[in-house]
Every structure is written in C-alpha cells, then in structure tokens.
Write a structure and sequence with these properties.
Order of helices and strands: HHH
Radius of gyration: 28 Å
Strand content: under 5%
Largest sheet: none
CATH architecture of one domain: Orthogonal Bundle
CATH class of one domain: Mainly Alpha
Organism: Thalassovita taeanensis
Helix content: 40-55%
CATH topology of one domain: Arc Repressor Mutant
Structural class: mainly alpha
Number of helices: 3
Number of strands: 0
Protein name: Chromosome partitioning protein ParB
C-alpha cells in the first residue's frame, strides 16, 4: 500500500427506518432474489409425524453399545429400542 487510507473519506450515515422505507427495501430485495430475513425456528431434525421418530442424545459409549448390539442381532437400532421398551413395560 502507498500509505494513504482510501477509506478515510467514508462517513457513517443514519439509515431511514420508517415503515414505508423498510417495506420498499424489502420489496426491492425480494424482487432481486433475496429471501425473508425473519428468524427461523429451532434448528435440528424434526420428529417424523408418521413414525414419531425420536432423536435422543445419549452418552457416546451408550450409543456405541446400542449400535453394536443391534448389529450383532442383525436388527436396526430402532427395533432394538422397541424390544427394550417392551421388556421395560412388560
């Protein structure tokens, strides 16, 4: 660089925040392909409404034990959990 500050001439200006101006800016943005800026809901996988699939957080060693036991039995982890639940309820 030559030592001159090319940004020195820039000045901060207050933005117009009237309802009409915000609406106009949003309309221009949507026309150019920008999406809605409103906050989204919580991130993460949602439970399946059809199967009521659950996604619990378990300790890593517990998760590995469930996975290895299901693999040894030749069933899915969900099937293993269903069997465990039946034994618990029975």
């Amino acid at each position: 660089m030559s030592g001159s500050n090319r940004l020195a001439g820039l000045k901060a200006r207050p933005k117009d925040t009237t309802v009409e101006e915000v609406r106009r800016v949003d309309e221009v943005g949507e026309a150019r392909g920008f999406l809605d800026r409103t906050p989204r809901k919580k991130p993460g996988r949602k439970p399946s409404p059809r199967t009521y699939q659950l996604h619990p957080k378990v300790l890593p060693e517990v998760g590995e034990a469930i996975a290895s036991e299901a693999e040894a039995l030749g069933i899915t982890q969900g099937q293993l959990i269903e069997r465990m639940w039946s034994a618990y309820r029975g």
